[in-house]
Each structure stands twice: as structure tokens, then as C-alpha cells.
Design brief:
By secondary structure, this protein is α/β, with parallel strands linked by helices. The protein has one domain (42-223): Vaccinia Virus protein VP39 (Rossmann fold, 3-Layer(aba) Sandwich), CATH 3.40.50. The chain has seven helices and seven strands, in the order H-H-H-E-H-E-H-E-E-H-E-H-E-E. It has helices spanning 5-10, 24-32, 47-58, 75-82, 94-104, 145-155, 185-192, and strands spanning 65-69, 86-91, 110-114, 128-134, 156-170, 196-204, 213-223. A seven-stranded mixed sheet has the order 3-2-1-4-5-7-6, with helices on both faces. It is globular, with a radius of gyration of 16 Å. The chain starts with a helix and ends with a strand. Bound molecules: S-adenosylmethionine (SAM). S-adenosylmethionine binds next to strand 2.
Length: 224
């Protein structure tokens, strides 16, 4: 999918394949060192809210099939499975999936698997009713956000729903670069405009997920 001029303005070209921050090595190292400060030890406090919005505004159905990219220890996937959804949660790092399995392997409705979200296996093409993203898109630099959204579009059925809890603003120490990275509402809308209709956005600064996240960006969009 080619970039529009709006996208080129917000998301300059990357040497994506030269060094991807979302590469396995970078994240494997974080997991190896147990450097996982994003982990909330349970589902995200706004998960229920975005799911309710997806039901109300996007007709998310009972038992819908969810993809969760960059699932980490898969607390959100586990909650969705407990709520009756069919969930495939994946992470590029084997250790992340091993840790998720140590807690949730036996949970009905939850499949935990290793995989690079930037490679879409054939069986995942247009196979999902919904995608829930928390901190996978914003784990990637801006130069990879368009590719991430395109991967989501590939996996969703027509009318499928994209749910994200993204970071519009962060409190990073001076001079510190991400991850995590930000995405503004305008940037997200620009990326979604190719394949999605935005149903809902909201900015929240209620500190629900710790001091690093200054302003969270909630969004629900429907694949057109
Ligand atoms: C910031 S963490 C968020 C984890 C989880 N969503 C959470 O909220 O606890 C980002 C996760 O994405 C995974 N990841 C990074 N690049 C990936 C890729 N290309 N495909 C799948 N997972 C990836 C990392 O290993 C890491 O576990």
C-alpha cells in the first residue's frame, strides 16, 4: 500500500528493513532482562471501556474472533477470552509467549503463539472480527505505524473493528528516545483513513497506566 501525501508529511520514510525497532532481537533482549515496565499484571483498566464502545458503535458480536498483536504476558487476551471472545494473541518473542502460557495456557478460547505481526500468515488474512492493540503500535517508531495499521487491515474482515489504546503524549526523560513512541489523534486518523472509518476517539489523562503515559488515545475504527 502506497503512502498518501498526508502520510508522507507525518511519517517520513524509514530504512525499515535496515534496523527495525520492532525486530525480534531488540525485544528478545528486553524479555531476557525482564525489562518489561509496561506490564500491568492484569488487563488494562480501559479494556472494558473500548470493548463496550466497539459493541455499541461497531456491533462487536458475542464470541467475536480477536487478534492481539504484541501481546506480552497476554493479560488483555486472557480477559477477553474469559468474557467469551475467541482470541489469538501473539508476540514476536518466544519468552513472552512462554510467560503468558505459564499463566493462561489452560484458558478456553485463548490461543497463544509466537509470530512477527509484520508477517501475516495466509490463514490470518481477513480472518478476524476485531483487533485489540495496547502498546504494540506505540512500541514501534512512527516510521512503522503505517505498516502496522496496514497489517491490521489485512487481518480484519470487512466491517471488522480496530481497537487501540495508544499513547498521544509521554513523559520521557529529556534526551530519552522510545520505545514507547507517540501517535497523535491527527496522525492516527490519517493512517486509518485509507481502510477504516473512525467510530470513536478519546484522549484521557487519568494516569490509569502509570507515569510514563501522559495522554492516552483511545480509538475504535471499522474496516471499510
Ligand atoms: C510494550 S510491549 C506491550 C505488551 C502488551 N501488549 C501489554 O500491554 O502488556 C510490546 C510487545 O510487542 C512485542 N513485539 C514487538 N515487535 C513485535 C512484532 N513485530 N510482532 C509481534 N510482537 C512484537 C514485544 O515483544 C513486546 O512484548
Amino acid at each position: 500500500m502506497r503512502k498518501t501525501s498526508e502520510e508522507k508529511k507525518h511519517f517520513p520514510s524509514s530504512k525499515r528493513n535496515a534496523q527495525r525497532i520492532s525486530s525480534k532481537d531488540f525485544w528478545a533482549d528486553r524479555w531476557q532482562n525482564q525489562n518489561t515496565p509496561w506490564d500491568l499484571a492484569g488487563p488494562h483498566p480501559h479494556l472494558q471501556m473500548v470493548v463496550d464502545l466497539a459493541k455499541k458503535l461497531g456491533g462487536l458480536s458475542k464470541g467475536a474472533k480477536f487478534s492481539i498483536p504484541g501481546c506480552g504476558r497476554a493479560h488483555d487476551g486472557a480477559q477477553l477470552a474469559k468474557d467469551g471472545y475467541l482470541v489469538i494473541a501473539e508476540d514476536v518473542v518466544e519468552r513472552a509467549i512462554a510467560e503468558a502460557k505459564s499463566q493462561y495456557q489452560k484458558l478456553p478460547g485463548l490461543t497463544l503463539r509466537t509470530g512477527d505481526f509484520f508477517n501475516c500468515p495466509k490463514e490470518d488474512l481477513e480472518a478476524f472480527d476485531a483487533i485489540f492493540d495496547r502498546a504494540m503500535m506505540c512500541a514501534c517508531p512512527k516510521t512503522e505505524h503505517a505498516a502496522f495499521v496496514d497489517q491490521c487491515a489485512k487481518r480484519l474482515k470487512k466491517g471488522g473493528l480496530f481497537l487501540t489504546l495508544a499513547f498521544q503524549e509521554l513523559n520521557l526523560d529529556a534526551g530519552k528516545e522510545g520505545p514507547p513512541y507517540t501517535i497523535s489523534e491527527e496522525e492516527l486518523r490519517t493512517l486509518l483513513s485509507r481502510n477504516f472509518e473512525v467510530l470513536y476517539t478519546e484522549l484521557r489523562n487519568d494516569g490509569a497506566t502509570g507515569v510514563v503515559v501522559k495522554m492516552e488515545l483511545l480509538c475504535v475504527a471499522r474496516k471499510t
